[in-house]
Amino acid sequence: MGVTQRLGGKTVLDQISFTVNQGETWAITGNSGSGKSALARSLAGQQFVQGRISYNLPDSFGEHPGIAFIEQQHQFRTLSNTDSFYYQQRYNSFDSEDSLTVAQYLGNAGPDTVRDSLARQWGLADMLDKPLIQLSNGENKRLQLAVALASGPAVMILDSPFTGLDADGRQTLDQLIATIGATGVLVIIVGRFSELPQAVSHLLVLDQGAVVYRGTRTGYEAPPVQSRVVFDQAWAVPVDHDLPDQLVLMEDVTVKYGSRDILQGINWEVRKGQQWSVSGPNGAGKSTLLSLITGDNPQAYANRIWLFGRRRGTGETIWEIKQRIGYVSPELHLSFERSDTAFDVVASGLFDTIGLFRQLSDSQRAATDAILTAMGMAGTSTKRLFQLSLGQQRLILLARALVKRPPLLILDEPCQGLDDEQSLVIKNMIGTFCTATNTTLIYISHYVADIPSGVDHHLRLENGKLVATGR
User: Which class is 233-470 in CATH?
Assistant: First the structure.
């Protein structure tokens, strides 16, 4: 008899069973919502299941061998021992002082020699003085993996370990997973099939909580990715926003935190209807660049930046800027309360707030219902955001960005953590909307395959400097 789990009257895992033999590296894969992360948390002892999970590990790991579980997303705690960082806090140098630095966080993993070794191995040596809250998503992931490895676990369970990593980071992690497995550590990977490490030898493929394949990697043939059309194009009608052709202009923009240069001498222009990709390695300054546009970074006032034809710092309010921008980021959903429903999250996009704090008019309620229906998500409206699968959460956040039909759409890794089919759905949905409405798009992704086909302008950052721009 296998492992079963029921949550809220729904079967999440249904009679799951598999055996990992010495020398094997397994991956748990399947579409979003198939039960992968639920099984990973159960294997790590974080969720209750019916049935038995047991480990028969070598004596070399001691009487109480540890299990390290590296989740897909991690929330650091403040120096006050809370996790209540506010959304814009990473861009405010004074407020970021309530965060540990990378060196302090690594120091908790062991003596200085261990810290320095981990920093070198994981490419963290140049950011030891950086506050945790100012880490990019990819830097955050590297730090979590480094600390987990330092604990000397007998079992490492990695939920979507490549999420947020650039190409070099993914290659380094691939090699490290092989090295870790060779030491006798039992490694179990959770993730999408197309980005599993080379070291993976066996697969457990789930679908709707049940096992559909259990065996060697070479014996499995993944089904073709289906391009489903879930977006009602009748909703995507052009809106005249009465704006100048030049939506964004930056002249010699520089951002510093203390003595560290985050952006240096950036010159960039975005015109109405253009579709841009912004690329670069982890920590290159991509998210900081976007924060200057979205109104979240106070250093915009110290630079020569024009948004929608108006110079920053000439009397405009942040809300006037946000009213014209639809925005998605990898960590945005973490800022919402666990009680917020999908409908509330989407409706909050009408007011650019993290949560819904006012009564809706009939027209605002109708607009929220309309975008949920257009995206095939009407059935989720009364469910809490955190009860939805990661793929559904991403669609809800995209609906929040689209609900007010903004002239500028800024999407930072909108497909992060999704399976191949859902990534294709979201990519096609974004492309359809922007092309049909002539909406200006700025899009960040570490995966070229996730970038919508209409994107024909490109900007690349490295170490805070613009190294390439154009068509």
Answer: alpha beta
